[in-house]
Amino acid sequence: GAVVSQHPSRVICKSGTSVKIECRSLDFQATTMFWYRQFPKKSLMLMATSNEGSKATYEQGVEKDKFLINHASLTLSTLTVTSAHPEDSSFYICSVPGGAYEKLFFGSGTQLSVL
Amino acid sequence: QKEVEQDPGPLSVPEGAIVSLNCTYSNSAFQYFMWYRQYSRKGPELLMYTYSSGNKEDGRFTAQVDKSSKYISLFIRDSQPSDSATYLCAMGRGAQKLVFGQGTRLTINP
């Protein structure tokens, strides 16, 4: 069964609105979760590391005010794309480390389309 | 130079063929090596995991790591149409901060 639950799977919104994406760890307590962005036919790019109970760590070039991350519990992290614009349209995926040898498990992804 | 290089393909082979997918990397500190399968518009699914050098086999899938050459491979035997997907290699010093290859798009033709 799924280890990570991510919702919604698809969002279409108007430019200027904010969109929240949820990532839930079903099998593991996760003090850390990761958020990735993937463009068509491109690899996954790490955006930020979500830390339970503290601030997220953002990768270079990722706007922390644009992509708000909240990790309020050991099973839930949320990514909010604020004031979304068409260039924010992308596939967003969360991941959770867990199991033996620190394996990384991914959510099913969220396709964001900003009109 | 990218840290991880992977031929994006596309790669198309007939059903039943042996498929070989490869990645090269530049960071000799990488210790964890993984292969993920990703279907269109879905999250990656962990297929194979290897720590350090060596081979690992799981059913029709075999993963090989050659740290001396900084080269990893995934072999798929008796390929099936359901194996059609994008295959991503990933590696890192700690599994949590992985670097991904671009992904190879594979099609198995019936």
How would you briefly describe this protein structure?
The complex is a heterodimer of chains A (115) and B (110). Chain A has 115 residues and is mostly beta strands.
Helix content of chain B: under 10%
The span between the termini of chain B is 37 Å
What is the number of beta strands of chain A? 11
One letter per element, helices H and strands E, the order of chain B comes to EEEEEEEEEEE
Distance between the termini of chain A: 34 Å
Name the chain pair with the biggest interface and residue counts per chain: A-B, 23 and 25 residues
DSSP summary: helix tally of chain A? 0
Radius of gyration of chain B: 13 Å
Low-confidence sequence ranges of chain A? none
Oligomer: heterodimer
- Helix-strand pattern of chain A: EEEEEEEEEEE
Main beta-sheet annotation of chain A? 7 strands, mixed
Task: Kindly name the structural category of chain B.
Answer: mainly beta
Say how many strands of chain B there are.
11
Number of helices of chain B: 0
Q: Class by helix and strand content of chain A?
A: mainly beta
Which of globular, elongated, flat, extended, rod-shaped describes the shape of chain B?
Answer: globular
The amount of beta strand of chain A, in percent, is over 45%
Task: Sum up the structure in keywords.
heterodimer, A: 115 residues, mainly beta, seven-stranded mixed beta sheet, four-stranded antiparallel beta sheet, 0% helix, 55% strand, B: 110 residues, six-stranded mixed beta sheet, five-stranded antiparallel beta sheet
What does this structure look like?
The complex is a heterodimer of chains A (115) and B (110). Chain A contains no helices and eleven strands. Chain A has strands at 4-7, 10-13, 19-25, 32-38, 44-51, 57-58, 67-73, 76-81, 90-98, 103-106, 110-114. In chain A, the strands form two sheets. In chain A, strands 2, 4, 5, 6, 9, 10 and 11 form a seven-stranded mixed sheet that branches. A four-stranded antiparallel sheet of chain A has the order 1-3-8-7, with no helix packed on it. In chain A, a hairpin with a 2-residue loop joins strand 7 (67-73) and strand 8. The model of chain A has no long low-confidence stretch (mean pLDDT 91). In chain B, the strands form two sheets. In chain B, strands 2, 4, 5, 9, 10 and 11 form a six-stranded mixed sheet that branches. The A-B interface holds A 4, 6, 32, 34, 41-44, 46, 91, 93, 95, 97, 101-109, 111 and B 6, 8, 32, 34, 36, 41-46, 49, 51, 88, 90, 94-98, 100-103, 105.
